[in-house]
Amino acid sequence: MITKPQFKSNDYKNGLYLVATPIGNLKDISFRSLEVLAKSDYILCEDTRVSKNLLEKYQIKSKLISNHKFNEKKNTLQIIEYLKSGKLISLISDAGTPSISDPGLVLVNECIRNNLNIFSIPGPSAVTTAVAASGFSDKFLFYGFLPEKKNQIEDEIKKLSNFNHCLVFFSSSKKLNKLIPAFKKFFTGRKIVFCRELSKLYEEYIRKNIDELELFNNELKGELTIVISEKKEEKASQKLSESDINLIKRMINKLTTKEITDLICTNKNIPKKVVYNFCLKLKNEI
Question: Where are the domains positioned within the chain?
Answer without folding.
Answer: 15-124, 127-228, 242-285
